Amino acid sequence: MALTLHYHPLASFCWKALIALYENDVPFTPNPVNLGDAAERAALLKLWPIGKFPVLRDEARGETVPESSIIIEYLDRHYPGRTRFIPENSELALQTRLRDRFYDLYVHLPMQKIMVDRLRPADKRDSHGVEEARAQLKTSYRMIEQQMAAGRWAIGEAFTMADCAALPPLFYASMVEPFGDNKGLVAYLERLKARRSIARVMEEAEPYFGMVPKEDG
User: Fold this and answer.
1) Which CATH number is 144's domain given?
2) Does one domain contain both 95 and 186?
3) Is residue 49 over pLDDT 70?
4) How many domains are there within the chain?
5) Do 31 and 5 meet the contact criterion of CB atoms below 8 Å apart?
6) Which H/E stretch holds residue 211?
7) Distance between CA 53 and CA 200 in Å, rounded?
8) Of 24, 25, 38, 86, whose CB count within 10 A is highest?
9) pLDDT tens-digit profile of 80-138?
10) What residues pair up with 32 in beta bridges, in sequence order?
11) Is 30 helix (H, G, I), strand (E, B) or coil?
């Protein structure tokens, strides 16, 4: 196959790219990467010296594509399918990119801050940083609740890149900061989980869920 995705099945940003691939049934070779293995880590660094995944390699076009949002736009441009992740309407396209950034920066990153802190030794934890992350998540939840009052996708009636970006951090964020009374947000997450492409990603990740850090470390 021309496309190879270098990823980890538990990594939330990798889910985002996988959702897009499965959404349009794009043929690709999955290459799970164990960063704890020196050879596998070296191979990833050769592709993308930053050393983070996902990374998409397109042998047919001779392209190496890092970063989940860029991977999705690349697929939309060169491997389009029934779902278009970036709307043709320029205003909707701008809103889609904004929502994508919103989920990455204001849900994904604070969620990861809390998760990573759980992996630290007790005397090295950042309680102040975790407090700030929880406050950011609560603000983001309220904003999403307002947007989801009509029971739609992130950008109206069509599933887009913004929805690919939403599922991974919302799924994990629900483990670190409950959604509370935000019923529209809860319903949105359930709509996402029921989508075929997303259900497949989560099913493949399920054997690894035991690795998710718990509150007690």
Assistant:
1) 1.20.1050.10
2) yes
3) yes
4) 2
5) yes
6) none
7) 19
8) 86
9) 999 999 999 999 999 999 999 999 999 999 999 999 999 888 888 889 999 999 999 99
10) 7
11) strand
- pLDDT given at position 217: 47
Residues 121, 66 share a domain = no
Work out whether strand 3-7 and strand 29-32 pair parallel, antiparallel, or are unpaired.
Answer: parallel
Q: Is residue 213 part of a domain?
A: no
**Does 75 have pLDDT greater than 50?**
yes
pLDDT reported for residue 211: 84
Does one domain contain both 61 and 101?
no
Q: In what order do the strands lie in the sheet with 29-32?
A: 29-32, 3-7, 55-58, 63-66
CATH (domain of 61): 3.40.30.10
* pLDDT tens digit sequence for 131-172: 999 999 999 999 999 998 777 999 989 999 999 999 999 999
Distance CA 114, CA 118 (A): 7
Neighbours of 25 (CB within 10 A): 11
Which pair of structure tokens corresponds to residue 158? Answer: 């069509």
Q: Check residue 122 and report its DSSP letter.
A: G
Query: How distant is the alpha carbon of residue 204 from its chain centre?
Result: 15
Q: How far is Cα 186 from Cα 157, in angstroms, rounded to an integer?
A: 18
Which H helix or E strand runs over 120?
none
